[in-house]
Hints:
The complex is a heterodimer of chains A (548) and B (347). Chain A has two domains: 311 residues, Periplasmic binding protein-like II (D-Maltodextrin-Binding Protein, domain 2), CATH 3.40.190; 222 residues, Roll (Dipeptide-binding Protein, domain 3), CATH 3.10.105. Chain A has 548 residues and is of the alpha+beta class. Chain A has a seven-stranded mixed β-sheet. Chain A has a four-stranded antiparallel β-sheet with strand order 4-5-7-6, with helices on one face. In chain B, 69% of the residues lie in helices and 0% in strands. In chain B, helix 6 crosses helix 8 and helix 7 crosses helix 8. Chains A and B meet through helix 1, helix 8 and helix 15 of A and helix 2, helix 3, helix 5, helix 6 and helix 7 of B.
Amino acid sequence: MTTIRLPQLLAAALAVTTLTWGLTACSASSAAPAAARDTAVYGGTLTFYDPVEYTAWQSTNSLWSNSNVTPSVADRLIWQDPATGAFHPWLAQSWSISPDHLSYTFHLRPGITFSNGDPLTAQVIKDNFDQHAFGNAKLGIAPDSFWEGYVSTTVINKLTFVVKIAKPNAGFLQILSNYRASSILDEPYLKLNLGGQSLLQNWVGTGPFVVEKVVGTTEVILKRRDDYNWAPEGYPHQGKAYLQTIIFKVVPEESTRVGALESGAAQIVRNVAPYDEATIKAEGGTVVGIPVQGETNSLKIQLNAKAPTQDLQVRLALQAATNRQEINKVALSPSYPVPSSALVEGTPDRGNASSYLAYNLPRAEALLNADGWKAGPGGIRVKDGKQLHFDIWVSPYYQVSLAVLQVLQSEWLKAGISLTIHSASLTQYEALEGGQATHPSPDWSFDQGQTSTADPNVLRVSTSFHGYNAYNFVTPDTTLESLLNAQATAFTPAARKAAVQAIENRLFSQAYEIPLYDETQVFGLASKVHGFSTESTARSWFYNTWLS
Amino acid sequence: MRKYLARRVVQAVLVLWAAYTLSFLLLSALPGNAIENRIHAPDSGLTPQDGQVLLHYYGLDKPVWEQYLHALGRALHGELGLSLTSVQPVTSLIGYALPSTLRLTGLALVAGIVLAGTVAILINYAPGAWLRGLAAGIPALFASVPTFVVGILVLQYLSFRAHLIPPVDDGSFRALVAPAITLGLVIAAPLAQVFSTSIRTTRKQPFVHVLHAKGAGEGYIFRKDVFRNSSLPVLTLLGLAFGELIAGSVVTEAVYARAGVGKLVVDAVTNQDLPVVQGVVVLSAVAYVVVNLVVDLAYPFIDPRILVGRNGAANSKGTWPAGRWRGPRRRGQAQPQGLPPEDVVVP
Lengths: 548, 347
């Protein structure tokens, strides 16, 4: 080692100064929003940056990056309005449901063609549905769990068919409108094995855009289909799409995505972090937060874990000690709705659980005192010599998880509840989570997560003992199970809403889960982007988007 | 010579087999894989029974040894299997990624060498002690500023503000320059350090004093004698720097959104896409073996005292590379600092 001399010190100092100056300049802002235009313009190329590498392009893939591309390529029988939850005719021009709610008769809109020129027929629909429901072991295609309870599709004539299901399901129309469960693709695609179905180049759909080029797993180019003329009935825009070309690119680095939006290299970027939202707005862009319909992002209590959470009073205290307003303010942004139900804002027929979810520290303390948890060393409560302590692993699926849990940790500490946060790689997390069902660990008392579907039936899929069993019931909660089933056979909106409310009352009076925030997709848009919209679960649908 | 080459090739094959087998065993020992991750993901909609169909499709339901034999047999035919996440052949994924990475690392290597050479010469020959001192601080500076910081600053100024370069790879040469220089900095620091030290050591050698005494100028001595004598440790380091280039390309490709091997492996590791990880391991092993073979074969061209024969048998026949060395031959001359290659004899 030589001794440091003045010139070296100077060089180092110069470098530090340059860096500091550079970082300060980065946060400075300039641009002003461009004037909006009222009339839509045809043409132009939109560049969309996504942080996540594309994986296999099977039609059932719901990975965020893939599913922001595919809805623009393939249509469904039914369009679900993301704002109202109402169903509108799309590839099917009308349908009727039998009185026993087991047969659905559909009439296809005439004149629809796939991008290869093939006409859309009842037979193609049948083959799509059969493959979803039954899979095809020879081709390596797994059955799609969304299609549980499907019996058959019978072709009546070229444009008419009847779908039969085994049990009444109030959520069935929604499944038929769902991009990952019911996107209609042409025969050549269905005949491919898993490898073939995993290539986007092989997609032959009826959508407003067609696949022009796929570069490895990092870039996709879609181009407009000029003869597209079957937009959902009643949709404000009909005929061909506005954009001529859409370029999707994988750009993992957050600052590059935000910077590219500012510099005009990209027009839409996905997954804007809460702390970048202000930067985008300051540069004249728009931040669009779209709640992902389905369950809120919550801590699901793991009832098979031998932990204090097996005690209802403790669960209720945890609920009361959780301040969701503060979580929103400190770790998130106004783009994320504060949960007031087990379902995300905008999910059709969702209930209202605000009374269960109010922050009430005195109540939490009173509940714990009454339950025998007394103040102990370090402010942590103690009962029978045991500390009121929990462990939690940061869920690797959500970019805001860690920040949210850190706020929660400080909130619970105020009530004398200790929470240790562990970080794990995706692999470790999967192993821990997967092992929970068979070898429950007392430390795995919470599992953070949500399932998205724009229908309250998602609660049954996720929480039922016979579904994903998200709370890891050891024995089924029969009250809850019968409520979950009742919801699926409530066919009028009023009855459905009441049935869902009853489920929520049960979930929260038992404090089976602690909602943290409404799962939200945040997009950053350049000022020249207009008419950006998504399908019902917050996946981009570029049919109505245009550039000024 | 032929015997030496044959030995090296056999060595190379063994290294490749060991790399393949070890990586297979290590990756198999990890819990889970991409398919199981997909089955367990909260939004997957796959039941464990459905997952069986997928596991069977990939042959992941077979015992590990059977999977290994199958994979090894396939690898011998140049096939590396299917990616578990994109269901595309690993060879075609690498085929997409490799050209971009080769361009990047190739240009980065050139940039790194030019930069390192310039700095090393400045440290030793710049007029004025203060300038030499300033230059001496440069390698430490390069080494201590992380690649992603350089990358982000370069993008901020040259791309987002000045619009001189595209922010993500568009296939043009213009998009390649900034990432290559960013990556070049990574290897420039150690190269410059070693090269400048090596120059300093060589210049203290008695033969340099003799040349000075004979009236040769600094420039002449550097070009004719010092450069060659000092470059041996640099060459050794270059073989190692290659590894740093691959490692550095991971970060560089992420920052500049370049679809290369670095990005491929990061995503594969994150998703536990074992066939892809293994494919990249094999690719890296091939590259390492080839680069180090080339480096070893290049030594004698620079310093004929390095012999390829065993037991220090002198290269008395002077066959390879014959008579190319016109530098000073001095008994007992010290090796330049660095990593002396094996089998050195002093004629």
